[in-house]
Amino acid sequence: MKKFLIAGLLVWLPLALTVWVVTSALGVLDGIFGWFLSAGQALLPASATEPLEMLRRIPGLGLVVTIVSLLLTGIFATNIVGQWWLRQGSRLLNRIPIVKSIYNSTKQVSDTLFSSSGNAFREAVLVQYPREGAWTIAFVTGKPGGEAAHHLAGDYLSVYVPTTPNPTSGFFLMVPRRDVIELAMSVDEALKYVISMGVVAPPSPAGAIRN
């Protein structure tokens, strides 16, 4: 009986978690879309709010609108006219004291993470953390820069150590390159390894030799 229960759980648990994540994401997008509809209803006369209320009842419409909006924004941002308007918007935001700091920091991080020429999260490595002799998986994000680099003698790497099972939180470390062990596994395989708390281990590369 116990064997069958566990086998059934292994079948349904991944499916249930997948459905939960997808429905949660759809709920967030529908909530954002509903907020825009509410703002439109507040600005428009009462006779024009009925069509907007009908749109609110369509499930998943927020996801469709988000995808279409991202595509249109991408098309706009990749032409000369769109780039000019984006530069003007950035200059305007950079003149607002508090908004300037938040916008610049967020833009630098997003440009680094999603740029095709960037090196963030391109490589999985092993580092000793939180103490010597204890190893964990980390992701190389580049090299130390700015003032921090002037105080570090030698070749250092900037790495991100994710937490388990939620890799969206973690720790930023600057460690000597000699203390980092490069891994042959891909970033996706390393993330699965971290999220599963070491249960789902990627296959060993061919010809790998244990020390």
Give the topology string: H per helix, E per strand: HHHHHEEHEEEH
Taken from the alpha-carbon principal axes, the silhouette is flat
How far is the N terminus from the C terminus?
42 Å
User: Radius of gyration from the CA trace?
Assistant: 24 Å
Kindly report the average pLDDT value: 80
Describe the biggest sheet?
Answer: 5 strands, antiparallel
SS-based class: alpha+beta
Low-confidence stretches: none
The helix fraction, in percent, is: 40-55%
Number of helices: 7
Describe the strand arrangement of the main beta sheet, using strand numbers: 4-3-2-1-5
Quote the beta fraction: 5-15%
Would you report the number of β strands?
Answer: 5
Write up what this structure looks like.
By secondary structure, the protein is an alpha+beta fold. About 55% of the residues lie in helices and about 15% in strands. The protein is built from 7 helices and 5 strands; from the N terminus they run αααααββαβββα. A 5-stranded antiparallel sheet has the order 4-3-2-1-5, with helices on one face. The protein is flat, with a radius of gyration of 24 Å. The chain starts with a helix and ends in a 16-residue tail after the last helix. The model has no long low-confidence stretch (mean pLDDT about 80).
What's this, in brief?
The chain has 211 residues and is an alpha+beta fold. It is built from seven helices and five strands, in the order H-H-H-H-H-E-E-H-E-E-E-H.
